[in-house]
Write a structure and sequence with these properties.
Layout: E1 9-12, E2 15-18, H1 21-34, E3 70-76, E4 82-84, E5 89-95, E6 108-114, E7 121-126, E8 132-135, E9 143-151, E10 154-155, E11 164-165, E12 174-175, E13 177-184, H2 198-227
Parallel strand pairs: 3-12, 4-13, 10-11
Antiparallel strand pairs: 1-2, 3-5, 5-8, 6-7, 6-9, 9-13
């Protein structure tokens, strides 16, 4: 049933008396003020002009981690591989089935660190849709190392201490992936050089030549006597 402000009336002594329009409007405003406001709960706030919770930490914004998330899977390097310091290392990765293929959208940031240390070193920044990169590690000691691939440079939980921490992440976001590998320090092989001067070396060669010639002649003569 549809009603208008002309439908509101009261009854006095069995007769109908219509309320003035101004009074009806006042009553409607009072009723609206007392009614509970309806809000729609959202899983995460929308980015604003002042702070984007998907790109940084926003004050007063807290989002639950997504119920489904993807994962970076490293194919190379891995625990069975070793590389030499100063030589290119092939870094290859894929994404699990739960990862949304639209992410990452900006970059793929790769870090490394020696096992047993906390600080990560920025290594390679690859395009967002790439799944392979090359990097070289110079001037480090040999040993076991870790590599981490961070989509869009976002450390979801902040526990890795690699990349940036944010307040929110999208559903099916690919979580960073890590792997361990070994670095070896190559030996520097120095060519052998004769410490004697060139003319001295030549002198020794000349003095040994008659002796070697005599030995050869003696060996041939002895062999001939044995054969006879």
């Amino acid at each position: 049933m549809k009603c208008s402000i002309l439908d509101f009336s009261i009854f006095f002594d069995g007769s109908r008396q219509d309320l003035p329009q101004e009074m009806i409007l006042t009553l409607l405003q009072l009723v609206a003020a007392q009614a509970p406001s309806s809000t729609v709960a959202t899983s995460a706030p929308a980015p604003s002009a002042t702070c984007d919770p998907y790109n940084t930490v926003c004050a007063g914004v807290s989002c639950a981690l997504p119920g489904t998330g993807g994962l970076v899977r490293l194919a190379s390097p891995n625990t069975t591989a070793y590389f030499y310091v100063g030589q290119p290392i092939n870094i290859t990765w894929t994404y699990s089935d739960l990862a949304d293929p639209q992410y990452p959208t900006q970059s793929v940031n790769i870090y490394y660190r020696q096992v047993g240390t906390d600080a990560w070193t920025s290594w390679v920044i690859a395009p967002p849709k790439s799944k392979t990169a090359f990097g070289t590690i110079n001037n480090v000691a040999g040993g076991n190392y870790q590599v981490v691939v961070v989509p869009d440079n976002i450390d979801v939980t902040g526990g890795l201490k690699a990349g940036k921490t944010v307040s929110c992440v999208h559903d099916q976001w690919p979580y960073p992936g890590t792997a361990e590998f070994r670095l070896l320090v190559p030996f520097n092989v120095q060519p052998y050089t004769n410490p004697l001067p060139a003319n001295t070396n030549a002198g020794y060669g000349l003095s040994l030549s008659p002796l070697l010639g005599g030995l050869i002649v003696s060996a041939v003569c002895g062999l001939a006597l044995l054969l006879n």
